[in-house]
Amino acid sequence: MNLLKMDDLTNHEINELLNQAQSFKEEKQKVNLNGLVGALLFYEPSTRTKLSFEMACHKLGIKLLSFSKETSSVSKGESLYDTVKTIEALGADFIVIRHPEKRYFEQLTDLNIPIINGGDGTGEHPTQSLLDLMTIKESFNQFDQLQVAICGDIKHSRVAKSNAYALSRLGANIRLVAKEKWQDEQLPFPYIDMDQAALDSDVLMLLRVQKERHGGVSYDQQSYLEQFGLTIKREQMMKDNSIIMHPAPVNRGVEIDSSLVESPRSKIFEQMNNGVFIRQAIITNCLQKGGAFHENSDSE
Ligand code: CP
Q1: Domain 126-266, what fold?
Q2: N or C: which end of the chain has fewer CB within 10 A?
Q3: Structure letter (DSSP) for residue 292
Q4: Residue nearest ligand 1's atom 5 by CA
Q5: In the chain, what are the domain boundaries?
Q6: Do residues 257 and 283 touch, judged by C-beta distance below 8 A?
Q7: Whose CA is nearest to atom 1 of ligand 1?
Q8: For residue 44, which atom of ligand 1 is closest to its CA?
Q9: Alpha-helical regions (H) of the chain
């Protein structure tokens, strides 16, 4: 079974995955998939997603094929389809793909190997969204009526889209913060200013400024933190139990004052830790018949 976008999962399936990831974290469940082989195809840079999939595979007993865009025949012009078809022919059991093209997976629908989307351009990042949901659930034990502000480079962020839609259908109230150029008018959520977001949000979800998607157009880093970032002054305005999240990598001093990255409210490194357990749960369900994932993409 594939996991390509958050709409592939019903609310029930999301909750099943979060519960299973939690039981991996609490060591209440062990799954041994010794003998299976996966491949991680990353056409864009990654630290967390790639390494946490590797860690999840180690914990599940899965071996990984080695692949790099630079040393494989991708550098000779091999297409994504032919690379994936080759890995399927070699007998691998699943593939994780990160690719700069939005909805790259639509060209792979004829293949039979399970595909997990590790990020498709500015499209979606479903495994990041699931680890974010796990982190929020650990803090609040629910999503209903939570005030969530997603702040930053909304237009170029795949995390923003996956999280906004998923959290909204789980009952959270979504508001967005972005400079005008980085707003996305296709998202049906209101924009507010950063002071308002700091004042009354339960979850302040910051995003990385995605310079690599700006086509060489620069922005003023100095004024960005003051206008759109989380300063120490804004952190002091936050409610007692509110949390700070960021998918990372973090541009310290741009999206957030550097001293807040490891502050008591920050869940940034907890998000990374949860990424291992959520990816264990995702792989397990992609590979098991009768796992949490359904065949169709109808949402509840
Ligand atoms: N959050 C995230 O996707 O990080 P990487 O780009 O390092 O994988």
Answers
A1: Rossmann fold (3.40.50)
A2: C
A3: S
A4: 46
A5: 6-124+272-287, 126-266
A6: no
A7: 247
A8: 6
A9: 11-25, 48-60, 80-90, 126-140, 158-169, 194-200, 221-228, 232-237, 268-287
Mutate to test the pocket of ligand 1, among 40, 47, 212 (most ligand atoms within 8 A of CB): 47
Ligand 1 pocket: which residues have CB below 6 Å? 46-49, 128, 247-249
CA dist 256 and 136 (Å) reads 19
pLDDT in tens, 108-139: 999 999 999 999 999 999 999 999 999 999 99
Number of Cβ atoms within 10 Å of the Cβ of 265:
18
Point out the annotated binding site. 48-49, 76, 98, 125, 128, 158, 208, 248-249
3-state secondary structure of 58: helix
Cα angle 283, 245, 154; round to 5: 90
CATH fold match for the domains 6-124+272-287 and 126-266:
yes
CA–centroid distance, residue 116 to ligand 1 (Å): 15
Q: What pLDDT is attached to residue 297?
A: 40
User: Which of 49, 207, 245, 268 for mutating ligand 1's site (highest number of atoms within 8 Å of CB)?
Assistant: 49
Stretches in the chain below the pLDDT threshold 50: 290, 295-300
Return the percentage of the chain with pLDDT > 70, whole number: 96
Residue pLDDT, tens place only, 132-173: 999 999 999 999 999 999 999 999 999 999 999 999 999 999
Q: Three-class SS of residue 252?
A: strand
